[in-house]
Amino acid sequence: MEKLVEGAVIEALHNGGAEAIRLYVAACAERMAPLFVGLRAGESGREADLDLYVECVRDLWHADRPLAGAAENVRQVERFPELQPNEEGITDVADTYAFFAALCLRYALLSHGSGKADDAVSCGHAALTAMGMLDQNVPGARFLAEEHRLQSLSLSGDASGLWDASFAAGRERLRAVLGRLPR
């Protein structure tokens, strides 16, 4: 499968070291978090999943060291309904974006714990795929281009403002997806 992650980003992930990888995946997960939390909030029985998602994203920002419980968190995220095989596939708008958010978090946790650049690339790929789909379904949207820009920014060596930019981008994504939901 062709990766959507830009070549320069892939190279920077492979050459940048574990802390650069952890910062990159933290920022990707932060941008995708509103899609999971916002689309799953209020669903009966999902409180623990929501809490885990939020806690994991918060902990991912500790880029100076690997997460102690990353492997266990991956196992818990892999049990999310969004990541379970489904014969019918995913057709619902909310389910689609919640799936990509859960997948992004899974790869972020894998990469954060292992320091493997390939897992980080998969994390970025999940975010880019979701944003490409959103661009196709929202006239005039430029979410894919913004995701590319923010992925490059997270590896530029100047991470100042990265959390703020990621948080704001995540909110815009959620607004766009909510605008696509049936009323």
Defining key terms:
single chain; mainly alpha; YP_001051499.1 fold like
Account of the 3D structure:
- Helix content is 70%, strand content 0%.
- It has one domain: Up-down Bundle (YP_001051499.1 fold like).
- 43% of the residues are buried.
- It is mostly helical.
CATH superfamily: YP_001051499.1 domain like
Category from helices, strands and their pairing = mainly alpha
Morphology call? globular
CATH class: Mainly Alpha
User: Could you tell me the radius of gyration in angstroms?
Assistant: 15 Å
Low-confidence stretches: none
- Main sheet makeup: none
* Strand segment tally: 0
Give a concise summary:
This protein has 183 residues and is an all-alpha fold.
Detail the topology: elements first, then pairings:
Elements: H1 7-15, H2 18-40, H3 47-60, H4 70-78, H5 93-114, H6 117-137, H7 143-154, H8 162-180
Helix pairs in contact: 1-6, 2-3, 2-5, 2-6, 2-7, 2-8, 3-4, 3-5, 4-5, 5-6, 6-7, 7-8
